[in-house]
Design brief:
By secondary structure, the protein is α/β, with parallel strands linked by helices. It has a single domain, classed as TIM Barrel (Alpha-Beta Barrel), CATH 3.20.20.70. Helices cover 42% and strands 13% of the residues. It has a seven-stranded mixed β-sheet. A three-stranded parallel β-sheet has the order 2-3-4, covered by helices on one side. The longest helix has 18 residues, at 225-242. Bound molecules: ligand V47. Residues 73-75, 111, 143, 174-177, 179, 214, 216, 218, 249, 251, 253-254, 258, 293, 314, 322-323, 326 line the site of ligand V47.
C-alpha cells in the first residue's frame, strides 16, 4: 500500500500490529488524508474480522426522559414538569419488548434519564418482565450513569446494583454516558454527570462480575483533538486490564434542540465521522469490534464505513428518541433484509449476531 512520507511510521506500526501512541492518534486526527487513514483501518478491520460484517436484530426502548442531570448536549432529558416528560409503565415496556416484526429479536436495549421517582424495584421488575416475554434475547440495558444513580439513590454499592440487576435478567451494559472523559470538557457539556473515572469504574465493576459491556464517545462538540484520543486511550487501558469491552461506538453530536445549539455548533461532517471511526479502529487495538450506529450518521455513510474500519452495523433499532429529539433525520428502523442488502452491496459478508457476537444466522 502506498502511503505518504508523513504516515510511513504509523503505517509500518499498523502493518506489524504494533500499538499506536497518543502522538500517532493526534497526528491521524489532524490529517485530512482520509483515504490513507481508512486504508490503514481497513487492514486492522480485515485482520480482526476478515470480510465479515456483523449486524443485530434489536430493539431500543427509552423508558423515561425525566432526568436530573440536564446535560447541555442533550435534547432528550427534561424536567418532571416540562412538556413531553414521560415515564413508561411496566406494561408499556413489556408490550414494546414483545412487539417485533418477523425478524427474531436478539437484543433489547433500554436506557433512560435519571428519574428520582424510579427506584431499583422498577428496574428489577422491568427486567423480569422483559426476560419473560423475550427469553431468547440478551438484555443490554442501563448506562453506567444510571447504574451509579441507583447506587446513590439507595445508598448501596455499584456492585450491589449490578448484581441485583443481573439476577433479575440484565446481561450487559450499553456504552452510553461516556461522552468525553476530559474533566474540562465534561464541566462544560455535562457538569452534573458522573466523572469519566466513575464511568470507567462502573464498567470495571461490571467486567469483574462477568458482564461484558460496550463503550462510546460523544464527539463533534467542544472537545479538542487530544481529548478524543485521550478518551480512546483510557478505554484501551481498561480493556488491557479487564478484556470486558465488546465493541466501541463513536457517537456524532447532534446540536438541534439542545442547550448547546445556541453556541452555533454544526452537525459533524461525513469526513469527520469516517475519520473518527477509522481512527477508533486504529487506536483500539484490543477491541474486537468497531460499530457504526447508522441512526447517528445515516445508513449510507454507515455502509461506506465498512471500508473504513467498521465491522458492525447497529441494528434494526425500531424506535429511537435520543438522537431524534436532537434533530436526527434518519429513520428509526431498518429491516433485517435492508441491513443484509447494505452489507452485501459493500462487498462484505453479513453475519447476524447477538450482543455477545455469537452467530445467530449466516449464509444469506
Ligand atoms: O449517552 C445524547 C448520546 C448516548 C446526544 O452501546 C447524543 O451499543 C448525539 O449510548 N447528539 C445514548 N448523541 C446512546 C448510546 C448508544 C447508542 C447506540 C448503541 C449503543 C451501544 C449505545 O447518546 C448518550 C450520549 O452520549 N447523546 N444526546 C446528541 N444531542
Amino acid at each position: 500500500m502506498w502511503v505518504s512520507e508523513s504516515f510511513k511510521n504509523i503505517a509500518s506500526k499498523v502493518e506489524n500490529g504494533e500499538r499506536l501512541s497518543r502522538e500517532d492518534g493526534i497526528r491521524l486526527l489532524k490529517s485530512d488524508d482520509l483515504l490513507t487513514i481508512g486504508s490503514l483501518a481497513n487492514i486492522v478491520r480485515e485482520r480482526k474480522n476478515g470480510n465479515k460484517t456483523y449486524f443485530i436484530v434489536n430493539r431500543h426502548i427509552n423508558h423515561t426522559n425525566i432526568c436530573i442531570n440536564q446535560c447541555h448536549f442533550c435534547a432528550f432529558g427534561r424536567d418532571k414538569s416540562a412538556d413531553g416528560a414521560y415515564v413508561m409503565s411496566l406494561d408499556e415496556i413489556e408490550t414494546k419488548a414483545l412487539a417485533s416484526d418477523n425478524d427474531r429479536i436478539s437484543e433489547i436495549h433500554i436506557v433512560g434519564g435519571l428519574n428520582p421517582d424510579l427506584p431499583i424495584d422498577y428496574y428489577v421488575e422491568m427486567l423480569r418482565r422483559v426476560r419473560k416475554v423475550q427469553p431468547g434475547a440478551i438484555i443490554q440495558s442501563f448506562t453506567a450513569v444510571e447504574i451509579d444513580y441507583l447506587a446513590e439513590l439507595h445508598k448501596i454499592s455499584i456492585k450491589e446494583v449490578l448484581t441485583t440487576l443481573k439476577e433479575a435478567g440484565l446481561d450487559s451494559l450499553p456504552g452510553g454516558g461516556a461522552e468525553i472523559f476530559a474533566p474540562r470538557v465534561r464541566e462544560k457539556i455535562c457538569p452534573n454527570k458522573i466523572s469519566g473515572e466513575k464511568w470507567l469504574e462502573v464498567h470495571r465493576c461490571a467486567h469483574e462480575i462477568g458482564m461484558q459491556t460496550n463503550a462510546t464517545m460523544l464527539y463533534g462538540h467542544v472537545e479538542a483533538i487530544a481529548d478524543r484520543i485521550d478518551h480512546l486511550i483510557q478505554l484501551r487501558e481498561l480493556q488491557d486490564r479487564t478484556d470486558g469491552f465488546l465493541t466501541f461506538i463513536p457517537l456524532a453530536f447532534h446540536p438541534k434542540n439542545t442547550p448547546m445549539q445556541s453556541m452555533g455548533l454544526s452537525n459533524t461532517t461525513g469526513y469527520d465521522d469516517l475519520k473518527m471511526l477509522a481512527i477508533s479502529r486504529l487506536m483500539l487495538d484490543n477491541f474486537d469490534h468497531i460499530k457504526a450506529f447508522w441512526i447517528m450518521i445515516g445508513p449510507k455513510l454507515a455502509q461506506v464505513s465498512l471500508s473504513f474500519g467498521v465491522d458492525d452495523l447497529d441494528g434494526t433499532v425500531v424506535e429511537e428518541k435520543i438522537a431524534h429529539d436532537a434533530g436526527a433525520q434518519t429513520g428509526q428502523y431498518l429491516s433485517k433484509k435492508e441491513l443484509i442488502n447494505m452489507v452485501k452491496a459493500a462487498g462484505r459478508i453479513p453475519i447476524q449476531r447477538d450482543t455477545l457476537y455469537k452467530v445467530v444466522e449466516e449464509g444469506f
